[in-house]
Amino acid sequence: MPPKHATAGLLGGWAVLLVGVVLLAGRWPELSLPAAGLTIVGYGTVLASAPRARVPLLALWGMTLALRLAGLATGPVLSDDLHRYVWEGELVLRGLDPYALAPNAPELAAVRAELPALHAGVNHPDVSAAYPPLAQAVHAALVAVARATSSDWVPVAEGLVRATYLACDLGVFALLLALCARRGLAPACAAAWGACPLLAFEFAGSGHLDALGVLLVLAAFALRGSGLRPALALAAAVLVKFLPVVALAGWVRERRPAWPVLGAALLLLAAGLAPLAFSERAFGGLDDYATRWEGFNVVFRGVHAALTRFRGPDAPALELAHDARVVCGSLWLGALAFAWWRWKDGLEFARVAILAFLVLTPVLHPWYLAWSVPFLALRPDAATAWLVAAGPLLYSTLAAGRARGDWSEPAWLWPVVALPFAAFLVAACSGRDPLAASRARNESASFPAA
Question: Rounded distance, CA 129 to CA 84, Å?
Fold first, then answer.
């Protein structure tokens, strides 16, 4: 594809994408399937055109910011995690332990009486905190700023959380521009993040903390060498969310840091996790989230169904759910072992490990997909691209679930999301991934490796 055509394709794809995002924003929390279709087509066109497109940096930034405006206007209607962030930040400020005290705990009766609206918005109020201590510290700091600046501080705190994670979101885009330049890729390849329709809503809108974790992971790999700074950045990422531990392992695999550097990172991890490890309930909240719920998933349902057929209809439901998790966890460990053997590149190891987690988890929330988006800029593949592009479809249960209290997904959702993903994955394993092949041809034509 000539650069002129690629540029026109990227701009046209972005325009289609923008229309779809605006239409989605106008209908949330209900899902407009035609609008979602526009975002899928537009995002796919952007990814296919990016390697040879010639788009000025200022225009790339403008396109990225324009999509975020839709998220800012929509607000936190897709998830209520934002309320829990502020609630737990307030508990930390008061010297209370969010890991030991669920929002409905009797010990928090006075807090509930003081902040009834905030408590009412917290999801799963019988479950204690699951987010690692650095995330809690960030939220406590933002609540402290809100308290110092306004008497009606709760909406201010929620706005600060959204603004903070929007800033992290834009920081990821800036780091991807730098990493693309270092790897000899077109700057437009960073549009994989900037033009992602899912991210337009998840950070500026819903204020999810994953933006900070992704930022710290990319910052570590953007730093050259195997010194202390990247190691500490990765340790900090794990203290925001536990999934980046695979990125830390990949960085160690690639950089082979000296033992003092690795020891310092592990020491930071140990110190950072101390409030969680020594809490009365320790990992109780995380265990509840990991074991009590199932939602949209790609593979887990098949494993669960196979175990049900094998053990019979009278098998206890809790045992079946537990055993299905054990099987999927074992498959994930196998994927990690294979990736460790196959790839020395730390980001490539992290890419495979994170994608395997997303495919095997019993609950695939849409914002989890953000962890795979940076790799579409650096090493795209059609399977991941489809999963990310189809992410807004996962909200199809939202409006009905809130109206009926029944979060069952529509019958069409799994086939529409999972079957194309599986087909693209098979194509990639056989060396016929269309997106990766297109990127390779375009790079060899115009962007020699750095």
Answer: 9
